[in-house]
Amino acid sequence: ALRGSFARKAQKPSQSSHHGLQLQASYKVAILGAAGGIGQPLALLIKMSPLVSALNLYDIANVKGVAADLSHCNTPSQVLDFTGASELGNCLKGVNVVVIPAGVPRKPGMTRDDLFNINANIVKTLVEAVADNCPDAFIHVISNPVNSTVPIAAEVLKQKGVYDPKKLFGVTTLDVVRANTFVAEKKNLKLINVDVPVIGGHAGITILPLLSKTKPSVSFSDEEVEQLTIRIQNAGTEVVEAKAGAGSATLSMAYAAARFVESSLRALDGDGDVYECSFVQSDLTDLPFFASRVKLGRKGIEAMIPSDLQGLSEYEEKALEALKPELKASIEKGIAFAQKQP
Ligand code: NAD
Ligand code: LMR
After folding, report:
1. I need a surface site. Which of 102, 127, 239, 242 has the fewest CB within 10 A?
2. What is the DSSP letter of 195?
């Protein structure tokens, strides 16, 4: 992710940087909630992508300054700011990827579900605007509780008659990023090589790292599996407690979200080898939504990978059965919310 822009060297005098940059692919990305804790560093990381030509930043306040600041970076994308509901439609016109980190974060002692009452309405309103203005865009939902906000988004899109399940994603990349980091630390592996699929959902025990499917293949003792699984499931809370009232993960989340955006843009650009875990409409289990590895292509999800759920360890099989009731309840809560709205 982001290799291109980080690796770019100063241009030789003989090369026109302007001309060079025009040879890059060009996609339009919007961030809704762009002035927030996640939104700002995410905007910076996306501003560094050579695949992006336009970066539209939307928030209910404080976004003008963020955009002015960011616009001085000499990378290709043009940064525009949009404030408040009256400017939301223009923010979304012609956009290829919409990222939604709008909403309130947790404080110590709260669950992600405690955010439902505020964030459900925010996501509903924003996705209605997405449906009206860029119904073909990939939609990346970050706002918690993801296990409910993604089903809400799906219902809203259905009500608007534009639902494409292949283009609606709950962002669970941070769970994979954490799993990769913690496993590499514990097993002394070269971080760049480690890849742990994480399935289920994005809250507590619904987050299920498949350590048995870690690449490169490694063996774990039962104790290590238990410790790593619990650490990955509680990593969000670990940050919430460390921040002690000042919010939840923002920097690691921005990093993870930028990776998911970059993967989506590469897929849109025709790269045939893009896989990410995400919480999506799914037929891999009896639940209507489920996080798993998906293959991304120009039209969104190109394939699910059913074999990822086969050959699980006994520990993983049990954890998978154990997470289903909670995940099912969160999904149903989201659907019920969206269906009872006028
Ligand atoms: P934050 O409070 O720092 O920022 C949220 C931003 O959303 C603010 O700038 C706010 O003005 C804006 N906002 C509020 N209502 C809005 C609306 N109607 N339209 C547009 N913007 C609006 O919070 P944060 O730390 O950036 O976290 C944002 C959300 O992301 C939270 O719900 C948090 O739980 C979630 N989160 C998810 C993951 C994940 O892995 N999916 C990880 C971290 C955080
Ligand atoms: C995370 O996993 O860090 C986010 O979902 C934020 C949170 O509330 O834990």
Report:
1. 242
2. B
